[in-house]
Every structure is written in structure tokens, then in C-alpha cells.
């Protein structure tokens, strides 16, 4: 069956979120970091769907890449009967795992295009595995390119401090990271004084994942409560707020982790640059504006408790949207591997993404 090419994870720079083995996919269980590095091995699309739903693996690009591997696993383990129906069902199941990150649907569409060209199960198994690895490698390459594009926008003449939100590193992507990739590049070029990392309640991607990734690479990081971001920007040493994205619409509105919108308002008030870094797989030109983006709401227990420890009265009503939408008017630059949209608007988005 498929002799998948060398998985990019073995060549990825720094931490990786997943490891591809041809007949199985290993996922680093991000729910347990930083206390425990535990890998889960999945052999089918259902297992990948469950891991996406449960946020074992999370981050818009990483969701797309793992879903692509899920389709490849569906072909690899399909029975001899109606293999096409099995793979179609796998794609439907993966598409239902989380609603906001368009990278998931972008990756599944890429896999479907390959699937429809296959005439045998053996051909499907080989070609879908190769496409999934290509999607992974393309994402890593995009992250490396975006870091260069971002530094051309920032053009720092001396080391700068930045603030970031959530986790947009190797754990959220095919490696290196989007906004965190920019931070890695600043550090590599000795142009980084400090990264302020929002803890990013309620799921704590900042304190548990970003702080962990940066510490692993000896990158200077200061963890802060989300509520401290305003005071940090008021101090005046932060030059840019740099964040990722889960979906960017045709007019430049950006859906990203809850709390991003308030950071954009703060940045504009304090005359700090606000930069969104995301691969073109995050662009959704089919949606006119951010109001069209489906915003995932997760269980209230994620706010009421941490690891089963209650933080609020039992059963208290919770509003837990895990993304919000930042209007294009508050964004100074959207950086992708294809180029940069400054002061994003529908014209600038169409010029770059058609
Ligand atoms: C480069 S990751 C993009 C995006 O995904 C994260 O969401 P989640 O952790 O819920 O999957 C967060 O919004 C990041 O900014």
C-alpha cells in the first residue's frame, strides 16, 4: 500500500504537533501540555475527527493538516467493498469536527479533488497520502515565507517587543508557526526584546502552549493575564500586536481566538501596530464579511472549571464563544505567504486573492 514520502514532521523546525507514519498519525495531546507530553496514535478518520473536536490537536492550519491525514487514513484502511463511500463518509465526518477554521474545509477540498481522480483503492491510498504530506509541507513553507514578509512590514532597525494572543506556533500549524513564526524570525535575527503572551482564557493556549513553545526555544517571553494587555500596551514598549487567524473574509475581517478583537481596539488606541499572520488557506473569499463567519461556541465547563476544579458556582450560565471577529478597519496588515494586504479592504484582498 502507500509508501508515504518522508513525513515533513521529521524535518520540521522545532516542536511538532503531529507525526505521520503512513498507516497511522500521532498527535501530541495539547490538552495535557505543558505538564505532560503525551502522544495519541490514531488510525482512522473518526479518531482524527474526535481529536479535532476534543482539541487534542488545534490551531487552524494544524486542524486542516490533520484532517487531510485523516482522509489518507480512511483510504489506507478502507475495506474492499464500497471504498469510495467510506472515504466520502470520512470527509463528511472530518468536516463536521469544528466550524470556524476555514483551513479545515480548504484541506478537505484539496483532498476531495485528488480523491475524485482516483480509480482504485490502491491509487487513492497512495495519492491521498502524498497530498496530505504535501499540504503539511506547503504549510511549513508558507510559515517560513510569512515570517520574511512580516519582517519587511515591521522593518525593525533595533530589537522590538511584541504582544501575542493564543497559540499560533508549531503546535497550531505544520511547523514554525504563523504569528509565532514571525516572533521566531525576529529572535533569530536578534531583533526581539520581549514577547508578551496573553494566557488566553479559557483554554489557556497562551500560558500552556505559547509559553511552552517559546521557552523550549529559549525565546524571551513574559506571560500575562489577558486583562493585563491594556496596561502592557500603555507602557509603550510594545511595537506590534501579532496574532493568527481562523478565517479571513473578502473584506479583510478576521475571525480569531476570543479576545483578539479587544486587543485590536487596544492597539489602535495606543497607536500600536496590529498584524494578522495567516496562510492563504485561511482566506475565505466566499464570505463577504466577518458577520458571515460561523463562530464556534464550546461547553460552559471550559469557563466554569479548570481540569475539573470549579472556578465558578456550579451550573452558572456561561457565554463561551471561542472566536471573535476583528473588523478590517482595526487591522494594519494581513500577512500571508502570497503577500501583504496593508490596511485591508475588499480591493486589497481581491488584488491578492482574486
Ligand atoms: C495559527 S492557529 C490560528 C488560530 O487557531 C486557534 O484557535 P484554537 O486554539 O481554538 O484552534 C487560535 O484562534 C489561533 O489564533
- With strands numbered from the N-terminus, the spatial order across the biggest sheet is 6-5-4-7-10-15-16
Number of helices: 11
Question: How many runs of DSSP E, i.e. beta strands?
Answer: 16
Principal-axes geometry comes out as globular
Query: What is the typical, i.e. mean, pLDDT?
Result: 95
Strand content: 15-25%
Describe the structure.
With 354 residues, this protein is of the alpha/beta class. The chain has two domains: 18-140; 155-353. It has helices spanning 45-53, 60-76, 83-95, 102-115, 121-154, 179-188, 205-216, 229-235, 260-269, 301-304, 346-353, and strands at 18-20, 25-28, 39-42, 160-164, 192-198, 221-224, 238-243, 247-249, 254-257, 273-277, 283-284, 305-306, 309-310, 323-326, 333-336, 339-342. The strands form four sheets. A seven-stranded mixed β-sheet has the order 6-5-4-7-10-15-16, sandwiched between helices. It has a four-stranded mixed β-sheet with strand order 11-8-9-14, covered by helices on one side. A three-stranded antiparallel β-sheet has the order 1-2-3, covered by helices on one side. Helix 2 runs antiparallel to helix 3 (83-95). The chain starts with 17 loop residues before the first strand and ends with a helix. Mean pLDDT is 95; it is low at 1-6. The structure holds the ligand CSC[C@H]1O[C@H](OP(=O)(O)O)[C@H](O)[C@@H]1O. Pathway: Amino-acid biosynthesis; L-methionine biosynthesis via salvage pathway; L-methionine from S-methyl-5-thio-alpha-D-ribose 1-phosphate: step 1/6. One of its GO terms (molecular function) is S-methyl-5-thioribose-1-phosphate isomerase activity. Keywords: Amino-acid biosynthesis, Isomerase, Methionine biosynthesis.
